[in-house]
Amino acid sequence: MLQLKVEAIKWELPDVATLFFIEISGKSFSYRPGQFITLVFDHHDEEIRRSYSLSSIPADPYLAVTVKRIANGEISRFLLTKIKPGDIINAVEPAGRFFVADPETEKDIFFLAAGSGIVPVYAQLRSIFNAPGKSNITLIYSNRDKESILFKDHLDELAKQHAGRLKIIHLLSSEAKRLTNLVVEELVKKHLRFNFEAAEFYTCGPFDYMRMIRLTLIYMGFDPGQIRKENFVLDTVSVAGRQSLIRRDGSGYILTKKSMTWWPAKISPYCRRRFKIISLCPTAAAPATAPPVRPYAKPGK
Question: In which domain, by residue range, is 298 found?
Answer without folding.
Answer: 234-301
